From TrEMBL:
It is found in: Cell membrane. This is DedA family protein. One of its GO terms (cellular component) is plasma membrane. Its main location: membrane. Coiled coil: none annotated. Keywords: Cell membrane, Membrane, Transmembrane, Transmembrane helix. It is a multi-pass membrane protein. It comes from Streptomyces parvus. InterPro entries: DedA_domain, VTT_dom.
């Protein structure tokens, strides 16, 4: 799909047109439905994190620079989409529930019930900051909604924090795409690097946790 414009608007250069893939799919939604299309793409990105916001949001900003939609519309609909997607994941966490979480956790190797209890206590103390700031961290911006649902954070509070954090994230990426114009795809390269760093740190932390647990069990058996 190509992101094309009405006859009254300026056509995109061939080099800047998304050629299929996620970018082409997002471009088709924005072209066909405008702001609501961008919102739908972002909502799906929140529910399915493999869909990259670092492609969808700058592309929406680029579309705004070409007159396909206004900046205000782009920010409103993409933020609304972020909230809708986050509420879906919040609902998953709420339906899964605390009891099921503990039952599932008890079946996992190398973990203790006390670890989950401490995590819950941490979320009770810092959950608002985690939801607000987590919306601005690649990868975790979607996942943070699940524990918020499990812990039954008041929904109005969750929605307000999600909207505020998402508005900051969306504004940065949409405006980057708007200002970069034909170079909108450069944003994805930089955010992609950050995402890989975050994932690498998470893997290292998990590996360290598993190593400590294995050593603790060995010492307990000796």
């Amino acid at each position: 799909m190509h992101l094309t414009l009405s006859a009254a608007a300026h056509p995109l250069s061939a080099a800047s047109e998304p050629q299929g893939g996620i970018a082409g799919w997002a471009a088709s939604l924005v072209e066909t439905f405008g702001g609501p299309g961008a919102g739908a793409a972002v909502a799906l990105e929140n529910v399915f994190p493999p869909l990259p916001s670092e492609v969808i949001l700058p592309l929406t900003g680029f579309a705004a620079s070409q007159g396909v939609l206004s900046i205000a519309s782009a920010l409103f609909w993409t933020t609304l989409g972020s909230v809708v997607g986050a509420v879906v994941l919040y609902g998953v966490g709420a339906v899964f529930g605390r009891e099921r979480m503990h039952a599932w956790w008890a079946k996992l190797p190398l973990v203790k019930a006390s670890d989950l209890v401490r995590t819950e206590a941490w979320f009770a103390r810092h959950g608002t900051k985690a939801v607000l700031l987590g919306r601005m961290v690649p990868v975790f911006r979607s996942l943070i909604s699940v524990p918020a649902g499990v812990e039954r954070m008041p929904l109005p509070v969750f929605v307000a924090l999600t909207a505020a954090g998402s508005l900051v994230w969306n504004t940065v990426l949409v405006m980057a795409g708007y200002l970069l114009g034909d170079q909108w795809d450069v944003v994805g390269s930089y955010v992609g690097v950050v995402s890989k760093v975050v994932l690498a740190l998470a893997v290292v932390a998990l590996a360290g946790y598993v190593t400590l647990r294995v050593r603790s069990r060995r010492r307990g058996k000796s």
